[in-house]
Predict the structure.
Amino acid sequence: MRNRILVACVGVPVILVVLFVLPEAFTPALIAVLSVIGTYEALHAIGMNHPRIALYTALVALAIPFWVYFGEPRQWGLLVLLVYLVLVFAEAFVSRNEALLEEFSAILRGAEIQMRPTVDDLAAYEDWKSCFQSGVVEFAAQCARGKRYPISYMRGLLETWREANVTSLEAAQEYQQRPRESGTRPQSNAPKNPALNYEQREYRNEDFEDDSYIEMAKAYLARQQAEENGGD
């Protein structure tokens, strides 16, 4: 706080000198410097500690006062703002993906899964974060340990939990233990195929003792052999 008071004590006289003593050409320079300081303080206050975004913002804040002072065409100013917005959007997109990659990779490493997530995997992870409570994705990774395609297994597992309205870690653990304890999978509520709704025949051991088909086959082969011998 003391440093800010000292800066104000020095800065206010400087501003007065620039505005009332120095030539008017120093005014846009003063405004540009104040704009750069203001944008830096604003970004720092909201936690935007990104060096490149801070640099882009400072350059635009530095250029606007001179653009207004020299009366440059509006098209150039709009072009600069467009380039600035594109750069900020690109930096924000890359930063978000880097943060997601670091989080998801840490979860996979914790489950001893040596795979690098793809862009689609990061999009799925971001969706999982909004649907499930803390610890659910980590538990899914533990369940996928040792699988041939662990991330694909996690996708299927988490989609199954979502359809079953399982969103907490405790519910997911209980859901996974339920089929193992009963020894069978939960029965599906889907309607049965009516074409299979008939009484099937029950076979006995005596049914397999009838070798009449074998005898018929032997007689047929003997007749074929006799006809061939007679033709010769």
Remarks:
- Residues 181-188 have pLDDT under 50 and may be disordered.
- The chain is about 70% helix and 0% strand.
- Residues 74-110 form the longest helix (37 residues).
